[in-house]
């Protein structure tokens, strides 16, 4: 039974041959069924758009553009997952599935606004006409996500006036680089996912292009992070070693702040029985100057880093920061990097220890971490840095 597919066929979710305490496939099916039964799915759907827009990356430079409509009450929360701080993983999946998507293929040179819907800061009553009745696509795989009900989009009709701030209209129409637009909107207090939506829709920048949503999230988090980084290097370092610890949606976050000039490192371990299986230690890092893309931890790196940088900015301090992310079997379905952004932010609200030296800090970390500290130390650049070595 070395073949996982054979194992699942024999188990059928009841024998738990994978070693988990529950079957992720059956859990996904139950959630999808509960949502499917609650939705009134037809070719013609009237409801609110949160607003929400998804741009797929397959077949780039031709991409799938998909606005969404929902019959869910209080739909504004659906457009910004950074507000999902006190929900369960099951509920997070449900909040995704209540969005009905209408897809259409376009070239990235297009610019999509759907009569102001994309730029609206509040939900907009809309009518979506689809080529056929939308359906769920559920992959019977323990690592695959459940996809929204969707069908080919024939027409989207906005039936009320979108709420578009004057500042946003000015930014969209000005001859500004996309990076400058992102920073200006962020500093003005606009939601991160609102900015991502504008970028993905091809509304920002001089040479406007549609940007796949997944890429847009990384771009926005990276540009905002780099901007904050340039500010915090002018602040004094913290004066003690600080440790923070919390768990969110099956992810355990342990964070070490070191009294020194800025540097950042994300160490990530998918623990045994997690959805992707045991990974060993994955690591990406930077000192002040970033070194290319985070090839091991991918988008998680930029999400975690931005939460850390905002925390340091609010304190008007700098530090070397090591974030340990340990993923348990409870994180049974991938739901996006937003949960890392929120998880690190929540962890930084829970300081569990303060020390005067690195030796005491490492000893305490050893007790908190689910994976052996010695394995992290073998790969950590920051913890093996010469200045730290002299402190041990």
UniProtKB/TrEMBL annotation:
Q: Which segments constitute the Archaeal Nre N-terminal domain?
A: 17-276
Protein's UniProt keywords contain Transcription regulation: no
Q: What does the UniProt record say this protein does?
A: Involved in DNA damage repair.
Which residue intervals define the domain Archaeal Nre C-terminal in the entry?
Answer: 289-386
- Give the top-rank taxon of the lineage listed in the UniProt record for this protein: Archaea
Q: Give UniProt keywords alphabetically.
A: DNA damage, DNA repair
| InterPro entries associated with the record | Nre (IPR033167), Nre_C (IPR006979), Nre_N (IPR006978)
GO aspect biological process, one term = DNA repair
Q: What is the protein's given name?
A: DNA repair protein
């Amino acid at each position: 039974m070395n073949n996982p597919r054979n194992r699942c066929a024999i188990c059928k979710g009841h024998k738990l041959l994978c070693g988990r305490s529950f079957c992720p496939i059956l859990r996904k099916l139950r959630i999808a069924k509960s949502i499917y039964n609650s939705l009134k799915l037809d070719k013609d759907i009237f409801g609110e758009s949160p607003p929400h827009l998804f741009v797929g990356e397959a077949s780039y430079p031709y991409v799938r553009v998909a606005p969404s409509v929902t019959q869910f009450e209080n739909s504004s929360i659906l457009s910004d997952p950074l507000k999902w701080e006190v929900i369960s993983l099951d509920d997070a999946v449900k909040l995704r599935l209540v969005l009905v998507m209408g897809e259409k293929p376009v070239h990235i040179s297009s610019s999509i606004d759907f009569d102001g819907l994309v730029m609206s800061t509040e939900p907009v009553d809309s009518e979506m006409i689809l080529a056929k009745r939308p359906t769920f696509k559920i992959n019977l795989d323990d690592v695959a996500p459940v996809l929204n009900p969707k069908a080919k989009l024939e027409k989207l009709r906005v039936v009320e006036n979108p709420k578009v701030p004057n500042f946003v209209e000015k930014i969209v129409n000005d001859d500004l680089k996309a990076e400058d637009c992102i920073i200006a909107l962020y500093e003005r207090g606009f939601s991160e996912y609102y900015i991502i939506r504008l970028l993905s829709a091809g509304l920002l920048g001089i040479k406007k292009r549609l940007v796949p949503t997944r890429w847009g999230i990384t771009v926005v988090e990276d540009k905002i992070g780099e901007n904050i980084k340039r500010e915090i290097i002018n602040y004094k370092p913290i004066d003690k070693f600080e440790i923070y610890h919390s768990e969110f949606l099956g992810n355990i976050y342990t964070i070490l702040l070191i009294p020194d000039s800025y540097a950042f490192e994300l160490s990530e371990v998918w623990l045994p029985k997690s959805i992707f299986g045991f990974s060993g230690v994955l690591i990406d890092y930077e000192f002040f100057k970033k070194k290319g893309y985070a090839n091991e931890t991918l988008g998680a790196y930029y999400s975690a880093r931005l939460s850390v940088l905002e925390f340091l900015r609010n304190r008007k301090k700098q530090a070397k920061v090591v974030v340990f992310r340990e993923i348990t079997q409870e994180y049974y379905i991938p739901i996006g990097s937003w949960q890392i952004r929120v998880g690190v932010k929540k962890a930084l609200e829970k300081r569990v220890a303060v020390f005067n030296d690195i030796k005491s800090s490492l000893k305490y970390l050893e007790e908190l971490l689910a994976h052996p500290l010695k394995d992290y130390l073998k790969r950590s650049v920051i913890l093996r840095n010469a200045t730290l070595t002299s402190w041990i």
